Structure to design on (743 residues):
C-alpha cells in the first residue's frame, strides 16, 4: 500500500530541512520526498496545515510488563505512545522479573510484535536483578535486541561495577543510561530537600545526591572513553558538571523531562501524590538552571520517564505512595506550549531533541530522520490546535498525571509507524 | 460564652497553624479561656455538643493527646469513640481511605487524626465529610499543642509581642516545633531554634526563625524555654554523635537557665526524658509550667471542637 503525505511542512534536523514537501511511503519506508509528487494510486493525507517530523522517540518509559500489568502493559503503553506522537519507546528494565536476561528481552519483543502499535526497544539491566553487583550478559542481551543498558531506579552504587559496565558497553557500542542518585543521601526521602520539604515535614532528597553520581559517572566516562547518558537531569550543579564535561570532550548526553522543566516543589503543598516523582520536582532555582541549559542547547533529548501507577497505588498517604508520573500523552503538547511557542527553543531543536538525537544515541540508523529509505515513522503536529488535558481520555491504564485540566497549545495530529497510521486526532 | 466568639474562625477543618490568621488564633485562645471555667465546676459538663459524634483516630500511640481530646469532647457532651490502630496493621490491611470511609459510614461529625505520615489529615480532609482535626501528623504539625502552648504563655506572660522564645532539640523531626514556630511568629514573638546542626537545618530561617546552635547563647534573655524530647533513634542515624554529648551540649540545667530572664518559664510537650534534655529538678521547679500545659490542653481542645462542630448553632445565633 502506498501513502502520500501532501503539502506538510517537513522538519528534519538531520538534513536541515524545513520546507513544504510531499512524502511518498511504500512498504513501510519513505520512497520519495519532493516538492510535488503525483498521487497515482496512493492514499493521500492532506498535511497542508501540519508539521511533519521524524517519529518521536521516548528513551525513558516504564511499560510495567511483565509483572505489573495492572498499572500498564505493552498494548496500553504503546497506544498511549501513539496518541502522544511517539513512534518508538524504550522500555526500562525494572519490570517483574527485571529485564536482565535474554528471556525477558525476547518476551517483550515478541509481545510487542503481536500487540504494540509503536516500536518498543528494550533497555536491559546493567546488573543481574538490578542488584548493582554482577554484570548481565550484555552481549547476549544486545544480540536479543536491547538498545541500551540501565539499572534505572536502582543506580549502580559501586564505582568499580560502573567502570566495568562502561568498558563493556563501549566494546558493544551501546549506551549506558544512568539514573544518578546516591541512595545513602536520599534514604526515606520523598521530595526535594529544601524550604518546602521542611515546611511540609517531609523527608528531603538533596540535589547533592544527583550531583555526586553525575560527577562520578562523568569521571568514569572520561577514564574509560565510554559514552554515558544521564537520565532525567534535575539539578543546577548537575547541569554545570555536564557543561564542563561536554567542553572537555567527554561523551556525555543528557535527557530532561517535561515535568522537571515545568513544575517545582512549590506545586506539592497539598500533598498530591501525583507529584511524587524521582528525581523529585526541584526548587525554582534548579528549574531556571534547566531552562538555561535548554536554551543553550546543553540538553540532548526530552524523555518522559512515563511511570504508571494505579489509582489505588497512588491514593494513599504521601510518604507511602510510589514515585512516578505518566507523560506519554502530554509531553508533546506541554513542550510545544511551554517552550516552542514561548521561544525557548526552535521547532527544529524541539524535533531534534525528540527524534534526531535519541535515534543517534541509540544507534537506530533508519529512524529519527525523514529521508528516502528510512522507516516511515512520522509524527504530524498541529501547532495551532488548543487542547485541554483530560486524564479520563488517556489510553494509559494509569491516571497519575499532574497536568489534568491544563490548557495547552499545540497537539499531535497523526502518528505513523512503519507507514501505518496508528493515531489520528 | 458569647455566640459571637466564633466570628473570626470559620474553617471546616483544623489541619495546621501555618494557614491560620493571627485573628483566628486569638479567637481560639479566647474561646478556650471561656471553656477553662467548665473544668473547674463540680459538674464538669455542658450540653453544647450533645448528639455530636467525635472519633479519635490514632495511628500512632499517644496517651495525653488522645485523653485530652476525649475529655474535651465529653465535657461538651459529645459522644466519643477511640479508634487506635498501629500503622503496621493498616499497611497490611485496608487503605487509610477505606478505614476513614468505614468510620464515616457510622455518621461521625469529627475525626481527630494522629498519624505518622506528614499530610495524612490533609489527605483525609480531601475526601471526607467530617471535620478533621490534626492531632499530630508525622513531622509536620501539631496545631492543638501549639495552641495550648500559646494559651499557657499568654496566661503567664500576658503578651506575645517581643517575647524571646527558645525551642531546644530535635527541630527537624518536631511537629510541635513547626506549629509553635508558625504560631509564635504570627503573634509577634521572636523564635530562636537551637540544637545540633543536623537537627536544626538552616532552612528554618526561611520559616521565620533565628538559629543559634549554642544553647548558652540562645538562652540569653529568653522569656520562654521550650524543651523537646530527644529520641534515642536519632543518634543511630548519626544526627548527633551520642546521648552523652547531646546532654553535655543541650541539657537544660539550673546553671544554664540563669542565662535566661529571671522570670523565664520552662515548657515541654512531653513525654520528658528526665536527665537527658532537662535536669529532673528543673522539670518540677517553680519556673516549669509543664503540668499547666497539660491542664490547658483540655480547654483549648474544647474550644477547637466547639468552633468546628458548633458552627451551625453559631450561625443561627448570629
Amino acid at each position: 500500500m502506498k501513502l502520500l503525505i501532501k503539502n506538510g511542512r517537513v522538519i528534519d534536523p538531520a538534513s536541515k530541512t524545513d520546507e513544504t514537501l510531499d512524502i511518498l511511503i511504500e512498504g513501510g519506508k519513505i520512497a520519495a520526498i519532493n516538492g510535488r509528487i503525483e498521487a497515482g494510486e496512493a492514499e493521500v493525507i492532506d498535511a497542508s496545515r501540519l508539521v511533519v517530523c521524524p517519529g518521536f522517540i521516548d528513551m525513558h518509559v516504564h511499560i510495567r510488563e511483565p509483572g505489573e500489568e495492572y498499572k500498564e502493559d505493552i498494548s496500553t503503553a504503546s497506544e498511549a505512545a501513539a496518541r502522544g506522537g511517539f513512534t518508538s519507546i524504550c522500555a526500562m528494565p525494572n519490570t517483574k522479573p527485571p529485564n536482565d536476561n535474554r528471556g525477558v528481552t525476547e518476551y517483550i519483543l515478541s509481545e510487542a510484535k503481536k500487540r504494540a502499535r509503536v516500536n518498543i526497544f528494550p533497555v536491559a539491566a546493567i546488573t543481574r536483578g538490578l542488584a548493582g553487583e554482577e554484570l548481565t550478559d550484555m552481549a547476549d542481551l544486545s544480540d536479543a535486541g536491547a538498545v541500551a543498558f540501565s539499572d534505572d531506579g536502582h543506580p549502580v552504587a559501586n564505582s568499580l561495577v560502573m567502570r566495568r559496565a562502561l568498558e563493556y558497553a563501549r566494546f558493544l557500542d551501546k549506551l549506558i543510561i544512568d539514573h544518578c542518585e546516591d541512595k545513602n543521601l536520599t534514604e526515606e526521602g520523598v521530595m526535594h530537600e529544601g524550604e518546602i520539604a521542611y515546611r511540609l515535614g517531609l523527608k528531603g532528597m538533596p540535589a547533592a545526591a544527583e550531583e555526586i553520581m553525575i560527577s562520578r559517572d562523568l569521571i568514569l566516562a572520561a577514564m574509560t572513553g565510554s559514552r554515558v547518558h544521564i537520565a532525567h537531569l534535575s539539578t543546577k550543579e548537575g547541569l554545570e558538571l555536564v557543561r564542563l564535561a561536554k567542553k572537555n570532550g567527554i561523551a556525555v548526553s543528557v535527557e530532561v523531562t517535561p515535568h522537571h522543566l515545568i513544575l517545582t516543589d512549590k506545586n506539592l503543598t497539598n500533598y498530591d501524590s501525583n507529584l511524587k516523582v524521582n528525581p523529585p520536582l526541584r526548587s525554582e532555582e534548579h528549574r531556571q538552571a534547566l531552562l538555561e541549559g535548554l536554551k543553550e542547547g546543553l540538553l540532548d533529548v526530552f524523555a518522559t520517564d512515563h511511570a504508571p501507577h494505579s489509582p489505588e497505588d497512588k491514593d494513599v498517604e504521601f510518604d507511602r505512595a510510589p514515585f512516578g508520573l505518566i507523560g506519554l500523552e502530554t509531553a508533546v503538547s506541554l513542550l510545544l506550549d511551554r517552550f516552542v511557542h514561548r521561544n525557548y527553543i526552535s521547532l527544529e531543536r524541539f524535533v531534534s531533541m525528540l527524534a534526531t538525537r535519541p535515534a543517534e544515541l541509540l544507534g537506530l540508523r533508519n529512524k529519527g530522520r525523514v529521508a528516502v529509505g528510512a522507516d516511515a515513522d512520522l509524527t504530524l503536529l498541529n501547532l495551532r490546535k488548543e487542547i485541554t488535558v483530560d486524564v479520563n481520555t488517556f489510553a494509559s491504564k494509569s491516571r497519575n498525571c499532574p497536568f489534568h485540566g491544563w490548557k495547552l497549545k499545540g497537539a499531535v495530529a497523526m502518528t505513523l509507524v512503519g507507514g501505518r497510521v496508528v493515531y489520528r486526532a | 460564652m458569647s455566640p459571637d466568639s466564633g466570628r473570626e474562625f470559620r474553617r471546616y477543618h483544623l489541619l495546621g497553624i501555618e494557614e491560620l490568621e493571627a485573628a483566628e488564633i486569638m479567637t481560639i485562645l479566647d474561646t478556650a479561656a471561656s471553656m477553662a471555667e467548665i473544668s473547674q465546676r463540680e459538674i464538669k459538663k455542658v450540653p453544647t455538643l450533645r448528639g455530636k459524634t467525635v472519633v479519635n483516630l490514632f495511628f500512632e500511640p499517644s496517651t495525653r493527646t488522645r485523653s485530652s481530646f476525649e475529655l474535651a469532647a465529653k465535657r461538651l457532651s459529645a459522644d466519643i469513640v477511640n479508634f487506635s490502630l498501629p500503622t503496621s496493621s493498616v499497611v497490611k490491611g485496608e487503605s487509610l481511605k477505606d478505614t476513614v470511609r468505614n468510620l464515616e459510614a457510622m455518621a461521625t461529625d469529627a475525626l481527630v487524626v494522629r498519624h505518622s505520615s506528614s499530610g495524612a489529615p490533609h489527605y483525609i480532609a480531601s475526601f471526607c465529610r467530617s471535620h478533621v482535626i490534626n492531632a499530630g501528623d508525622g513531622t509536620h504539625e501539631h496545631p492543638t499543642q501549639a495552641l495550648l502552648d500559646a494559651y499557657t504563655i499568654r496566661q503567664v506572660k500576658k503578651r506575645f509581642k517581643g517575647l524571646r522564645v527558645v525551642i531546644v532539640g530535635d527541630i527537624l523531626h518536631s511537629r510541635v516545633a513547626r506549629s509553635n514556630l508558625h504560631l509564635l511568629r504570627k503573634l509577634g514573638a521572636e523564635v530562636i531554634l537551637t540544637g545540633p546542626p543536623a537537627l536544626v537545618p538552616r532552612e528554618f530561617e526561611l520559616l521565620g526563625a533565628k538559629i543559634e546552635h549554642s544553647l548558652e547563647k540562645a538562652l540569653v534573655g529568653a522569656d520562654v524555654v521550650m524543651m523537646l524530647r530527644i529520641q534515642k533513634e536519632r543518634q543511630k542515624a548519626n544526627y548527633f554523635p551520642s546521648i552523652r554529648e547531646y546532654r553535655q551540649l543541650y541539657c537544660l540545667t539550673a546553671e544554664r537557665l540563669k542565662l535566661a530572664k529571671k522570670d523565664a518559664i520552662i515548657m515541654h510537650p512531653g513525654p520528658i526524658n528526665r536527665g537527658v534534655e532537662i535536669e529532673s529538678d528543673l522539670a518540677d521547679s517553680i519556673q516549669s509550667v509543664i503540668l499547666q500545659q497539660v491542664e490547658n490542653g483540655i480547654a483549648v481542645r474544647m474550644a477547637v471542637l466547639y468552633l468546628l462542630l458548633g458552627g451551625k448553632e453559631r450561625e443561627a445565633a448570629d
